[in-house]
Amino acid sequence: MSNTKPRIVITMGDPSGVGPEIIAAALADPSIRRICRPLVIGDAGAMARGIAIAGTDLRVLRSSSFIPEDFSDALPILEITNLADEDMRFGSPSIAGGEAMFRAICEAARLCLAGDADAIATAPISKEAMNRAGHLYPGHTELLAELTGAERVVMMLAGTQLRVTLVTIHESLADVPRLVTFEGVLDTVRITHRDVHRYFKRDPRISVLALNPHCGEGGMFGDEEGRIIAPAVEAARREGIDVVGPLSADTLFHFAVQGDYDAVVCMYHDQGLIPLKLLHFDDGVNVTLGLPIIRTSVDHGTAYNLAGTGRASAESMKAAIRMAADMALVKASGEGEL
Question: Where does a divalent metal cation bind (predicted)?
Answer without folding.
Answer: 170, 214, 269
